[in-house]
Amino acid sequence: MAENLKGKPVVGAIKDNLSQRVEALKAKGITPKLGIIRVGARPDDLFYEGGAKKTCESIGMTYQVFEYPEDIAQAAFEQAVLDVGANKEINGILMFAPLPKHLNEKKIRSLIPVEKDVDCMNLGSAGKVFADDETGFPPCTPTACMEMLKYYNIPLKGKKVVVVGRSLVVGKPVAMLLMREHATITICHSRTENLPEVCAAADILVAAIGKAKMINSSYVKPGQIVIDVGINQDPDNPGKYCGDVDFPSVEPIVEKITPVPGGVGSVTTIVLCKHTVMACEMQHNL
Q1: Predicted local distance difference test score (pLDDT) of residue 190
Q2: Long-range residue pairs from 123-129, CB within 8 A, at least 24 positions apart, any chain
Q3: CB within 8 A of 186, min separation 6: which ones?
Q4: Which of 118, 169, 236, 252 is the most exposed, fewest CB within 10 Å of its CB?
Q5: Which domain holds residue 260?
């Protein structure tokens, strides 16, 4: 039986730290504030927004939701994003994506100021992450992976880490963050040859491919640590969610594993708040 690396204690530890930092900022007359930009009202956006609001409240932060109709014109939305970016009260910006098809998402992402881009929407932020410039915020999900590894004292220096998935949202940035900790990284994807063998050779396996239960017992070995970033509709249990790892077949073999739900995904909203507090501190030269 593998040790389950649950997100709840990680969230608790980060919350304790952030609550103290927010109190210190409030003592100086500063309250960190998250701006949430949402077009339309997709259920998954509303669900995440609800969690973000609750998390903000739990550490003493504030937030403001900027909601726009689904049929908003490109020029009007560009101006709206510029206005939120220029708002001195807003320290961090979360914009839900994908945007409706008629909007030029690449252009709009580029309008979010890098110093407020707490979920790495702007390519300028990604550039900073890849250049090891810590004034650029990585996306929240790869940062949540790193927070979990740190909380559970999992050594990374010199370790072989295989990342399955090469997206700009998880795969590539998590590889960069792992390299900062001196891990040796292999990035794989759906066209990697002998993928099960490559994965089984890792000390730590990060699954971020976006395919339900793809990583099964043939991809792992005893002693491994498995970080499952996936969140997919469970094909075998309608209405339930599962990760990219086939948990029942992998869990008896490996040493440690993150569950889905209750693992990496549960840490992302507190990371969003952490990035906003950090942005606030930097904007006030603290």
Answers
A1: 87
A2: 126/168, 126/173, 129/173, 129/176, 129/177
A3: 160, 161, 162, 163, 198, 202
A4: 236
A5: 140-266
Looking at the fold, whether 230 and 184 belong to one and the same domain comes out as: yes
pLDDT of residue 23 exceeding 90 = yes
The two structure tokens encoding residue 101:
């098809």
Radius of gyration of the chain (CA): 19
- Each residue of 188-240: pLDDT tens digit? 998 999 999 999 999 999 999 999 999 999 999 999 999 999 999 999 999 89
- Within a domain: 188: yes
Measured distance CA(170)–CA(99) in Å, rounded: 19
Phi, psi (5° rounding) for residue 228? -100, 110
- Total domains, the chain: 2
The overall average pLDDT reported for the chain is 97
Pairing state of beta strands 184-188 and 160-164?
parallel
Q: How confident is the model at residue 141 (pLDDT cuts 50, 70, 90)?
A: very high
| pTM exceeding the 0.90 threshold for the entire prediction | yes
The angle that helices 268-283 and 43-59 make with each other, rounded to 10 degrees, is 60
The pLDDT > 70 percentage for the chain reads 100
List of E strands, the chain: 3-4, 33-39, 62-68, 92-95, 160-164, 184-188, 204-207, 225-228, 232-233, 241-242, 256-257
Burial class (CB in 10 A: 0-12, 13-18, 19+), 28: exposed
Residue 98 lies in a domain: yes
What pLDDT is recorded for position 1?
A: 87
Scan for tokens 């072989």, then name that residue. Answer: 160
Q: State how far the Cα of 115 lies from the Cα of 136, in Å rounded to an integer.
A: 7
Two tokens, residue 66: 């900027």
Cross-strand bridge partners of residue 35: 64, 93
Confirm whether 158 is domain-assigned: yes
